[in-house]
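Sharing a chain and its predicted structure for anyone who wants a worked example. Both blocks are below, sequence first, tokens second.
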Amino acid sequence: MSAETADEPGGSATTRGTVGVELSRRPLFYAVLGPFWAWLVVRWVYDWVVVPGTNVTSRETFFPTQPFVSAGEVLRETAAPPPLAGLLDWFAGGLDFIAFGIEALPQLAAGAWVTIVLTVVSILAGLVLAVPLSVARVYGNRVTRYPALAATELIRGTPLLAQLFVLYFGLGLTQYVRVIPGVGVGVLPDTAVMVALIGFTINSAAYQSEYIRSALLSVDSGQLTAGRAIGLSKVEAIRHVVLPQGLRFAIPGWSNELVYLIKYSSLASFITVRELFFRAEAIGNDTYLYVQIYTVAALFYIALVVSASAFMSYVEDRVAIPGLGTKGRR
């Protein structure tokens, strides 16, 4: 994850933002992702409210699979010349894939919920930590600048998976997390998820601080001087004058971090977090249909990533100031 996208507010950030907006305006975008999110929300509500406590492997699929299985059998039993027989068998395999995917949907929906929780909570909590880190890097003195630099480089210089292992296996944070009231009750995350949230938050904070630092450097230094000239303290000028401008420049990089978190959330499966990849792997271990289940899981990830990109493009449009940054030039 590089901070290069935030260094030039008018550069690569323009391309990323434009692509997201174009996607969000296409009818196909709404035709595909609209039903996907509608089904996902209904699925969650049904699982939590209508049949709470039902084992994830025993939940209803909402969609019948027998018609696809029967149609596939009919195609395989149809007598046809070799070229056409191969094509019919290919179509039969596609129908079997659809039936298999439908059966896996309840488990993947449960995993998608954990993936979304990991992503959203981590990026928001990481932002809270990233802002003071980036401000310390840009406007702090030696007492604040070097510790912030050391913390940022330590996190960015080590693999996320290693960080999760240290927190989960090395420090044993689960023994401290499990005493928190409400952990693991209902839809609230369990201990492994809480440890993963801590790890993702720390990791995301380090990368976000670089995006924000680059964005703050892109704000004209005269803005801080102007703030001081009207009677604001240095901290007040940074908070009320510089940060509102810099954070707008950081949105493309922040969008990039959001997409990364969605995909990197799969690493949480290594510390027993039952997110999307964990559920897909479990299904593959039971059925040995690894290609099929990972293909369905990939479709889930694509839907999440495209939705996140479109949402961040919408946010970028909403907070844009005409004449300032990338959106004002369109």
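Comments welcome. The chain has 13 helices and no strands.
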